[in-house]
Design a protein that fits this description.
Largest sheet: 6 strands, antiparallel
CATH topology of the largest domain: NADH Oxidase
Radius of gyration: 25 Å
Strand order of the largest sheet: 8-7-6-9-11-10
Structural class: alpha+beta
Order of helices and strands: EHEEHHHHHHHHEEEEEHHEHHEHE
């Protein structure tokens, strides 16, 4: 995909002439998921790319009849043209991996180039944790209205009073936790119960010979359940700190990387982009997507990637409710360093990549970090846990 980007520079001549102070210059940026970086191209390279197909191989001799040799060589060096020689093998294999994965081009670009690395390690512009709501209103004005109203009030049809159940109580107690009890351990029984209810499977069935399916607690596009759970355990009875993979069928943890307490906290903080109120959780759950599990059925499909992202939302809500029922705190965040997580877990982002990070554990007795609890179901007026 080619993106035009406007670069603004100070125009002193225009300033002294009483005209525009800023001069605009357009740069062309190529976004290719088989490459590790954005690639700047010039107008001649842009024109050349527009004359070539993406499927059939073309001899360099024929191509040189309509594109300057210098442009061809530049595009080959940048990896936007792919040669069949041995020195292009690495780039060619990455390009073939994108094609073989049945990615929709727009989805591949959106996924690959929205991933973060090292965000939040300092005062990062991507993370707004140090800017209050007052700061944001002062900078950007009031937010859009909290309500949408499509007809006049006298045209609305009032519904009957809702009947109450235990689920209502659970929903009212559900709140994002930013205050975890770092001095305690999460009990093994609560840890086990929550993992099985939220992430485990209730059954494994052979739908047709050679095609296995899972029955889980959340809906999934095509019933394929492409999400995996990797755990960063920091404070659970009976489990050493470190990285684990959760085996959904056997309800078991697969140890990956042992970590001491300091290393586990540092990695947690990196995972959640410096949001230290989230890195204090006793367990961080990285929900990754095995894209080919979904794309195997929905090949080059415009909705396949969206279905995967929606599924992560279903799982995170189940985690909130299961944690709330057990009296635990929980959260979900999309402000994560996907690239750092991929490196820690040894993942290829075109095959498997993080979607969100969730966390859970015992709440602290006192609130030190602000939480959104307007019903007062978690904290009393003095900031003590109810």
């Amino acid at each position: 995909m080619i993106e035009p980007r406007e670069q603004l520079t100070l125009d002193l001549a225009g300033l002294f002439a009483g005209g525009n102070v800023l001069a605009a210059n357009i740069e062309w940026i190529a976004l290719a998921p088989h490459l590790d970086a954005e690639i700047k191209i010039d107008a001649s390279e842009l024109t050349a790319l527009g004359t070539m197909g993406e499927t059939s191989w073309t001899s360099i001799g024929l191509l040189a009849q309509r594109v300057a040799s210098a442009v061809i060589e530049s595009l080959l060096r940048k990896g936007l043209l792919i040669g069949d020689g041995p020195h292009h093998m690495g780039i060619r294999e990455r390009d073939e991996a994108v094609r073989a994965g049945h990615w929709r081009p727009l989805s591949a670009v959106a996924h690959y180039f929205s991933r973060w690395s090292d965000a939040g390690s300092g005062e990062d512009v991507h993370v707004t944790r140090h800017r209050t709501l007052t700061d944001l209103v002062r900078e950007h004005g009031a937010p859009p209205s909290h309500l949408t109203e499509r007809v006049e009030k006298d045209q609305r049809q009032t519904l009957s009073q809702p009947r109450r159940s235990a689920l209502d109580t659970l929903f009212r107690r559900r709140a994002t936790c930013r205050n975890f009890d770092t001095g305690s351990l999460l009990g093994e029984a609560d840890f086990s119960d929550l993992l099985h209810r939220v992430l485990g499977c209730h059954d494994v069935v052979e739908v047709i010979p050679g095609a296995m399916g899972l029955k889980k607690s959340n809906p999934s596009g095509g019933g394929l359940h492409p999400l995996e759970a990797y755990l960063l355990v920091r404070g659970v009875e009976g489990f050493a700190s470190g990285l684990y993979h959760y085996h959904v069928a056997e309800h078991a943890l697969e140890p990956l990387t042992p970590l001491d307490a300091d290393a586990a906290y540092e990695l947690a903080n990196r995972f959640v982009a410096g949001q230290d109120f989230f890195s204090n959780a006793h367990v961080l759950v990285v929900l990754t997507a095995r894209f080919r599990r979904t794309f195997w059925k929905y090949r080059n499909h415009p909705k396949a990637y969206r279905a995967i992202v929606l599924e992560a939302g279903h799982v995170s809500q189940n985690l909130y409710l299961a944690a709330t029922e057990l009296g635990l705190g929980a959260y979900v965040t999309a402000a994560i360093n996907e690239i750092d997580i991929e490196k820690a877990l040894g993942l290829d982002p075109l095959q498997e990549s993080p979607i969100v990070v969730c966390g859970f554990g015992p709440r602290a007795d006192r609130r030190t970090m602000l939480e959104f609890d307007p019903l007062g179901t978690v904290w009393d007026e003095n900031g003590r846990r109810r």
